[in-house]
Automatic annotation (TrEMBL):
Keywords: Hydrolase. PANTHER family: ALPHA/BETA-HYDROLASES SUPERFAMILY PROTEIN, ALPHA_BETA-HYDROLASES SUPERFAMILY PROTEIN. GO terms for cellular component: chloroplast. Pfam families: Abhydrolase_6. One of its GO terms (biological process) is chlorophyll metabolic process. This is Alpha/beta-hydrolases superfamily protein. SUPFAM superfamilies: alpha/beta-Hydrolases. Residues 100-357 form the AB hydrolase-1 domain.
């Protein structure tokens, strides 16, 4: 989803640059899931536009939620996740099964990958998707100080303790940045590849202070931090933002494909925002430290990286400091591949999933052969 400051879209305050798996009888035996497996193989290649993509390619969100699993992080926090084993079970033992971990952006959760789980499982990957602490069905502790560093640590611990095998991380927005930080601080070679979908520049708008636009707006940003420190004010802002009509307007401003902004998407964002602790996470993220930015982190990474960037992104635009950096990065870092997706917004995987799959699936398939 959109980076943290997207919730202030209507304020227009500036640019956000911001081995084995458990037994899963549902995914192997559910008639609906089995049918979607068959349908995927016969239809996906022919799905050339969002409108023509058959509904059966999308995971049913309610079925997905029924099969959530929990992992205890540090013995303190319950982290929600789900696993999709490879669709072709017969080939996994001979050619090897690799692992993906999908990491959502600000305000989103596992169901935001509704169009991607089956296609990714179709190419012999075991696909994990997690809800970061503070989002989705994961715990939302009221006394936790949310930082990019804590999310990166969570991702690495999840990989080590749950996946128990090397992974390729796939992230959107601040989820991308958390993946970059995880890869940069990975001392155990757990991360073997990165896929970044419109990577954020920081946890909030204070990250890219060398951009003249952000410099001009810093006093306003600090004022917003002060206002959010007043819980009554923050609560009113948050309650207004999470109203369905307002959420739909915000989502429409960051999606290029307006048809993708359906009622289900609005509920994916709205539902977890009603949980206890959601307000505290909102305040901590918006008013907290921005953390490291990708300009600092990317030179530390030597693993293969695929960057997919929607050219209609209003939050991290191509002509912004982070967009410009990623546009130039392939000439500086040979391990990085960049593809600009035309007519796509800040959340490419849900905005125009077929364009993402067209570039992502072949890239992942080549890693299976390496």
């Amino acid at each position: 989803m959109a980076a943290a400051t997207s919730l202030f879209t209507h304020w227009r305050i500036g640019e956000t640059e911001t081995g084995s798996f458990p037994s899963l009888p549902y995914f192997h035996s559910s008639p609906n899931y089995t049918q979607r497996r068959r349908t995927y193989r016969s239809h996906f290649v022919r799905a050339t536009s969002y409108e023509s993509s058959p509904e059966s390619l999308k995971v049913d969100v309610q079925e997905l939620k029924q099969k959530y699993q929990k992992w205890s992080w540090k013995g303190l926090y319950n982290i929600n996740y789900v696993v999709f084993p490879p669709l072709d079970q017969s080939s996994s033992s001979s050619s090897g099964c690799h692992n993906l971990v999908l990491v959502h952006g600000f305000g989103a959760s596992i169901p935001h990958w509704r169009w991607n789980l089956l296609p990714l499982a179709s190419i012999n990957y075991t696909v994990y998707a997690i809800d970061l602490l503070g989002f989705g069905a994961s715990d939302k502790p009221t006394d936790f100080r949310y930082t990019m560093e804590s999310w990166a640590e969570l991702i690495l611990d999840f990989t080590d303790q749950v996946v128990q095998n090397p992974v390729i991380l796939v992230g959107n927005s601040i989820g991308s940045l958390a993946c970059v930080l995880a890869a940069a601080t990975d001392s155990n070679s757990l991360v073997r590849g990165l896929v970044l979908l419109n990577c954020a520049g920081g946890m909030n708008n204070k990250a890219i202070v060398d951009d003249w636009r952000i410099k001009l707006l810093l006093p306003l940003l600090w004022l917003i931090d002060f206002l959010l420190s007043q819980r009554s004010i923050a609560s009113r802002i948050f309650n207004r933002v999470k109203q369905s009509d307002n959420l739909k307007n915000i989502l429409s401003s960051v999606y290029a494909n307006k048809d993708a902004v359906d009622d289900e998407l609005v509920e994916i964002i709205k539902g977890p925002a009603e949980d206890e602790g959601a307000l505290d996470a909102f305040i901590s993220i918006i008013a907290g430290p921005p953390g490291p930015n990708p300009v600092q982190l990317m030179p530390q990474i030597s693993i293969p990286v695929l960057v997919l960037w929607g050219d209609q992104d209003t939050l991290t635009p191509l002509d912004g400091p982070v967009g410009k950096y990623f546009t130039a990065i392939p000439s500086q870092l040979p391990n990085v591949t960049l593809t600009v997706l035309e007519g796509v917004g800040h959340c490419p995987h849900d905005d125009r999933p077929e364009l993402v799959h067209e570039k992502l699936l072949p890239w992942l398939a080549t890693l299976l052969q390496s």
